[in-house]
Design brief:
Helix 2 runs antiparallel to helix 3. The protein has four helices and 18 strands. The N and C termini lie far apart (41 Å).
């Protein structure tokens, strides 16, 4: 695994300081509006936490506008490496606690993924984890099962590569399945629970895949 360089950490810490400053400042303004009472302190802490995450989404998306995550091999000491590693720090220190928790309802998780840059069609929900939302594109009426994981990065020793994951409409991905970088899944396909779809796999519309590593179990039907 490639080390995150001090300059990249400093960039992230500056962004984090901005997030905390905005959150604390907004909470201070809010404190003058909250009515006195025994639950005032609890309400203020909850409001501060919510504001910090809202500003984190905003600052993160602004960062991605300036330094978007680009597909391909990430060269060392490059602009793309700065973007990729700051993105990793955002997830390790801020967003991982949101996307890997089982306490946030699935409909709210959808809103979080949209805020983080995922492209999700209507009526598409994930009870699993999308580890790289900006590089995850999913169509409509698709369901991702409990504890499934989808990621769009490849880490092989010191090699780092980003590859988008594209999933079509009305796809079912079973619980605890793993979908790796560069995978493309066609409409109406089914990925069985616990399967591991290895990187760059192309799954045609209507096919059923399963196993470790995943392989085709059933060809597309005429209805698909």
């Amino acid at each position: 695994m490639r080390a995150i360089k001090p300059g990249q950490i400093i960039v992230f810490l500056c962004l984090l300081a901005l997030i905390l400053l905005l959150g604390a400042g907004s909470a201070a303004l809010l404190s003058g509006v909250l009515p006195p009472g025994e639950f005032r302190a609890i309400a203020l802490v909850a409001a501060t936490l919510l504001l910090v995450y809202l500003y984190a989404f905003m600052v993160y998306r602004c960062f991605l506008l300036l330094l978007p995550l680009r597909e391909g091999v990430v060269a060392e000491n490059s602009r793309d490496e700065l973007a990729a590693n700051v993105n990793i720090l955002f997830y390790l220190l801020l967003f991982n606690s949101l996307i890997r928790t089982h306490f946030i309802p699935v409909p709210l998780q959808r809103l979080i993924y949209l805020a983080l840059g995922a492209r999700l069609g209507v009526n598409t929900y994930s009870a699993g984890a999308l580890l790289d939302p900006p590089l995850t594109r999913i169509g409509s009426n698709t369901i991702i099962g409990h504890d499934a994981v989808i990621f769009a990065h490849v880490i092989e020793g010191a090699r780092l590569e980003l590859k988008a994951v594209v999933i079509g409409n009305t796809v079912t991905i079973g619980a605890k399945a793993v979908v790796m970088a560069g995978v493309c899944i066609g409409d109406h396909a089914i990925i069985s629970a616990g399967s591991v779809v290895t990187k760059d796999t192309q799954i045609a519309a209507g096919e059923v895949w399963g196993g470790v590593p995943a392989r085709r179990l059933k060809a597309a039907s005429a209805q698909a």
